[in-house]
């Protein structure tokens, strides 16, 4: 559910030379199998529009900002991501939509599994019926 979407503070080292953020074993509650990132996203773009059956992910705005609308079938919650040291843990079974990308926005995602199209629920009607069973 929406309540299972958790903020993850990414540990960082700050000094006069700038900041260094670290994602390693313990900061993520699953074993990382894949990293991908979205970049050069037009501000009018709509991304996401699906849920995952079993994939867990942590999303980080490495640069710029964008909004993510989460939906558990009952409740919706919008989170603006704009800090490279803030991760959002997305459990399975959450519909997500991503909008309002700023220029230069980079969305990095750390995933618990390699890519598998079978894991996607891309029809909202299917998502709703899975949620209601
Ligand atoms: C998610 C949001 C935040 C691959 O071949 N390998 C990959 O690892 C990924 C992620 C995608 N693809 C292919 C599948 C599609 O043909 O790349 C194409 C675009 O993927 P999609 O339309 O799913 O992109 P988004 O930005 O809507 O969604 C992605 C992730 O797929 C999804 O898991 O949570 O980013």
TrEMBL record:
InterPro entries tied to this protein: QdtA_cupin_dom, RmlC-like_jellyroll, RmlC_Cupin_sf
Any single Pfam family the record assigns to this protein: FdtA
Residues covered by the Sugar 3,4-ketoisomerase QdtA cupin domain: 4-131
Superkingdom of origin: Bacteria
Protein name listed in UniProt: FdtA/QdtA family cupin domain-containing protein
The species this protein was found in: Sungkyunkwania multivorans
């Amino acid at each position: 559910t929406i309540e299972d979407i958790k903020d993850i503070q990414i540990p960082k080292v700050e000094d006069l030379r700038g900041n260094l953020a670290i994602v390693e074993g313990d900061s993520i509650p699953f074993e990382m199998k894949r990293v991908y990132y979205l970049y050069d996203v037009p501000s009018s773009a709509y991304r996401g529009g699906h849920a995952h059956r079993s994939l867990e992910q942590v999303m980080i705005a490495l640069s710029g900002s964008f909004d993510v609308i989460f939906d558990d079938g009952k409740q919706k919650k919008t989170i603006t991501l704009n800090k490279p040291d803030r991760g959002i843990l997305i459990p399975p079974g959450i519909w997500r939509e991503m909008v309002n990308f700023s220029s230069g926005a980079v969305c990095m995602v750390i995933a618990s599994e390699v890519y598998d199209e079978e894991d996607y629920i891309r029809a909202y009607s299917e998502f709703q019926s899975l949620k209601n069973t």
